[in-house]
Write a structure and sequence with these properties.
Blueprint: E1 2-10, E2 13-21, E3 28-34, H1 42-53, E4 57-60, H2 75-87, H3 89-104, E5 109-119, H4 121-131, E6 138-142, E7 159-165, H5 173-185, E8 190-195, E9 208-209, E10 214-215, H6 218-236
Parallel strand pairs: 3-4, 3-5, 5-6, 6-7, 7-8
Antiparallel strand pairs: 1-2, 2-4, 9-10
Helix pairs in contact: 2-3, 3-4
Length: about 240
């Protein structure tokens, strides 16, 4: 596996993505990987490597800026980093579309076959990528945040898969129903897979805070990654 970092920009903001792939003579489909509220750290980079093992190019994008990271267990710091994007969906859409533009310029990428996936805050980001009307084949939200902003949606062209813990306190059932209604009314090809007895951040082995609602669950993680792999085969094949 080849891994490297790539600098790109959103206006004057320098960002640093992490790319993973197996060498190939032909351009490959690519999958953007949007990080959780702690920034483009281990979970997102391992996510890009997981994508590479599936035969695609994985690109862990950067929403915050080069060298800007949160910290494990620091809800105040991580929340402060995420808040400007949660509150300003125009900024969020522009920032994640900058990553899409950057990866499309790379020679070993098939620009017609790109998808995106994201963890937690990153799930919000890839849903907003879809809502922005971006030309991507599909997006996967993994224990993502569903609440939309106050920005009107463009025509959603991506297929949508949401992998959700039923007991996630950050995304209660009424928000799941609201997303399903939103996607249905927009004519989107959507799926929501809900895992019983499962909280937020269920794919993160470091998540172990039941009081906060973040708990790793191996069974749900395996099921979610299998569903993601099946979905990517469908949309990128």
């Amino acid at each position: 596996m080849i891994t490297t970092t790539i600098d790109y920009q959103d206006g004057n903001t320098v960002l640093e993505g992490y790319m993973a792939y197996h060498d190939s003579a032909r351009p490959k489909p690519a999958v953007l990987v949007a990080h959780d509220w702690g920034g483009r750290r281990e979970l997102a980079c391992k996510g890009a490597e997981r994508i590479a093992e599936l035969g695609y190019v994985g690109f862990a994008l950067d929403m915050y800026g080069k060298g800007i990271f949160g910290a494990d267990g620091d809800a105040e710091k991580n929340g402060a980093l995420m808040a400007p994007f949660a509150q300003d969906r125009i900024l969020l859409r522009r920032r994640i579309n900058a990553a899409l533009h950057a990866i499309r310029q790379l020679q070993h990428i098939d620009p017609a076959r790109i998808a995106a996936m994201g963890y937690c805050f990153g799930g919000m980001c890839v849903l907003e990528l879809a809502r922005s009307g971006a030309n991507v084949r599909g997006v996967v939200s993994i224990h993502g945040i569903f609440t939309p902003g106050n920005v009107a949606n463009e025509t959603i062209r991506a297929k949508v898969l949401c992998l959700h813990g039923h007991d996630d306190p950050m995304v209660p059932p009424e928000q799941v129903l609201a997303l399903e209604t939103e996607m249905t009314q927009a004519g989107v090809d959507w799926q929501v897979h809900a895992y019983g007895g499962t909280m937020h951040a269920f794919t993160n082995p470091k998540a172990n805070n039941p009081g906060f609602g973040t708990v790793y669950k191996e069974t749900a993680a395996k099921r979610a990654y299998q569903s993601m792999a099946n979905f990517l085969t469908e949309v990128l094949g």
